[in-house]
Amino acid sequence: MANFPTPVVLGTEQVRARLDEFIVIDVRTAGEYGSGHLPGALNVPLDQVRRALPEIEQAARHGEVLVVCASGARAESASRLLAEQGIVTATLEGGTGAWAARGYELTVPPAAEARAVWGMERQVRFTAGTLVLLGLVLGWLVHPAFPLLSAAIAGGLVFSALTNTCGMAVVLGKLPYNRPRTADHLDTALAALRAHA
């Protein structure tokens, strides 16, 4: 079994005191990132981290990398992936949500550019709840087999909790409102990472 570097989990106070020392990578979707992010954070959505590995590795040679998301789960996944490549990272305990709850500054794009997008966890809860209700209502009104949809969603939620993964979040992350408006959004973040070298 290979020994990978263990990501360090830092509290909001620790990160705030040293924020300017970190290369901050926000792994939320572009829509979530646009609704407010840590000052100076670069957006590399979780599903694009592998593509950004060379730039992240290069930047990590010249500064400490802090990976953040909404609550910490996606940042932990990204940090594990980076650790497998030998890249040492830190994560923010409680993510951007904990940062905002402490009243710390979030950078929000100008109103003309910003799009109000729910956080991914809220999107998952809404979608799962809607599908469960839909399965129950259709089972009552249309066919008695429809509650199997509700059971499948419940099983998926249990699997998600046990494995600390979320297939529904992956699918929702690909929807247009969670994607950047411009094709060069990731390229901009990658160029900024290269500039840290």
SSE map:
Elements (H helix, E strand, L loop, with lengths): L7 E3 L1 H7 L3 E5 L3 H5 L7 E2 L9 H8 L3 E5 L4 H12 L4 E4 L2 H7 L18 H22 L5 H17 L3 H7 L11 H11 L2
Parallel strand pairs: 1-5, 2-3, 2-4, 4-5
Helix pairs in contact: 3-9, 6-7, 6-8
In short:
With 197 residues, the protein is an alpha/beta fold. It has nine helices and five strands. It has a five-stranded parallel sheet.
Low-confidence stretches: none
Helical/strand content category? alpha/beta
Can you give the helix content as a percent range?
40-55%
How far is it from the N-terminal to the C-terminal residue, by CA?
31 Å
The total of helices stands at 9
* CA-based shape: elongated
Strand tally is 5
Average pLDDT over all residues: 84
CA gyration radius, whole angstroms: 18 Å
Strand/helix succession = EHEHEHEHEHHHHH
Strand order of the largest sheet: 1-5-4-2-3
